[in-house]
Amino acid sequence: MLENVPAAIGHLLEGVRPGLDKTVYYDARLTRVEHAIAVTSPAFTDGAVLPARFTADGEGVSPPLAWSDVPVGAAAVLIIVEDADSPTPAPLVHMIVHHLPGSNGAIAEGAVSSEPPSVATGRNSYLKTGWLPCDPPTGHGEHRYVFQVFALDTVPDLGEHPGRSAVEEALVDHTIAKGVLIGMYERA
């Protein structure tokens, strides 16, 4: 959808970005959480470019993700992926996955973009469930896609398809560990 935005408009909006500090992971109410979860992907490393197949320029499938070092006693794991550099006041939500077991785990490539998704999903910023492929405006520069994994001390009642606000409120009171992996993507 944003691939059709003229590069000139992308350049004009280049300074309009919410930033990492507006992502859920960096919420000031979660700074008390010290235990770190290791978040990895067999498709890209932290700070590296996301392969095009996970974007609107490719197949648009959800990337594989793995997490470890989840503390004993965790009741659930929740994942949220946000674009810290979208030309919007708040980060754009690309994916919410909830009701995962409270242990080390992984989700396979395409698991969140299948119809229906093979995991419990929340609503992305387009108010749809599943994976919203990375789609930065042409000429806007490099975007940071922040894959955030949270371990919770309870299984929160988030409803069937929660949005960012409901997820963030549950995380504030129940997060016992968190981890992050950042993938980069830019549309030239």
Describe what you observe in this structure:
By secondary structure, the chain is mostly beta strands. It has a single domain (2-185), classed as Phosphatidylethanolamine-binding Protein. It contains two helices and seven strands; from the N terminus they run αββββββαβ. The strands form two sheets. Strands 4-3-6-7 form a four-stranded antiparallel beta sheet. The chain has a three-stranded antiparallel beta sheet with strand order 1-2-5, with no helix packed on it. A hairpin with an 8-residue loop joins strand 3 (76-83) and strand 4. It is globular, with a radius of gyration of 16 Å. The two termini are 15 Å apart. The mean pLDDT is 90.
Write the layout of secondary structure elements.
Layout (H helix, E strand, L loop, with lengths): L6 H6 L25 E3 L24 E4 L7 E8 L8 E10 L3 E3 L35 E10 L11 H11 E11 L3
Antiparallel strand pairs: 1-2, 2-5, 3-4, 3-6, 6-7
The CATH homologous superfamily corresponds to PEBP-like
Using the coordinates above, name the CATH class: Alpha Beta
How many β-strand runs? 7
Shape call: globular
Roughly how many Å is the radius of gyration? 16 Å
> What is the SS-derived class?
mainly beta
First-residue to last-residue Cα separation: 15 Å
In what order do the strands lie side by side in the largest sheet?
Answer: 4-3-6-7
**How much helix is in the residues?**
under 10%
Uncertain residue ranges: none
What fraction strand?
Answer: 25-35%
Largest sheet: 4 strands, antiparallel
User: Do you know the CATH architecture?
Assistant: Alpha-Beta Complex
